[in-house]
Amino acid sequence: MNPADSLAKMKDTDELLEKREKLLQKKVDDELREAKKMSMSNNKRAAMMSLKKKKMYEKQLEQLNGTRVTIATQIIAVENAMLGRDAMSALQLGAKAMKAIHGDLDIDKVEDVMEVRLGGNLWGKCIHMYLFLTVFLVCIGYSRANGHSQ
């Protein structure tokens, strides 16, 4: 049975137990009314019997509530497991997509690109520095011919 089917079965079972719980609660209420009625008519023996039945139904109600709590806990656990499975599946798809995108790259290709990029940056910095120094020297009046400022 797959997780979705198990989840559906547990929810159906919980609904069935809820119906049983309502029936038992009705029986508890009925027995309490019967006990009061018998007590009013001075039939103590019948009143005691109704109270004993009421207590028996209440005990069944407690057991039923415990079972429903267990089922609810299991439903939550299965839903969380299914959510975790779906999240893992999505992460795996993302990893496959990233691998497909970067599949033809290897360390040598990355190194070549970085070398060209850094080399280009180095030349750019050198040109920038040369232009800066030229402008600076012109501003302070430095002459190439005599090697000193005017």
Can you describe this structure?
It is a single chain. With 150 residues, this protein is mostly helical. The chain folds into two domains: 3-104, ESAT-6-like (Helix Hairpins, Orthogonal Bundle); 105-150, no CATH class. 87% of the residues lie in helices and 0% in strands. It is built from three helices and no strands. Helix 1 (3-40) packs antiparallel against helix 2 (44-101). The N and C termini lie far apart (95 Å). The mean pLDDT is 84.
SSE order and pairing:
Blueprint (H helix, E strand, L loop, with lengths): L2 H38 L3 H58 L5 H34 L10
Helix pairs in contact: 1-2
Q: How would the global form be characterised?
A: rod-shaped
CATH architecture of the largest domain: Orthogonal Bundle
Q: How helical, in percent, are the residues?
A: over 70%
Count of runs of 4 or more consecutive helical residues: 3
Oligomer: single chain
Strand content range: under 5%
Total domains: 2
CATH superfamily caption of the largest domain: ESAT-6-like
Biggest β-sheet description = none
State the low-pLDDT regions, or none. Answer: none
Radius of gyration: 42 Å
- CATH topology of the largest domain: the name is Helix Hairpins
Order of helices and strands: HHH
Task: Look at the helices and sheets and give the structural class.
Answer: mainly alpha
Report the top-level CATH class of the largest domain: Mainly Alpha
Mean pLDDT: 84
State the distance separating the first and last CA atoms: 95 Å
Number-wise, the strands total: 0
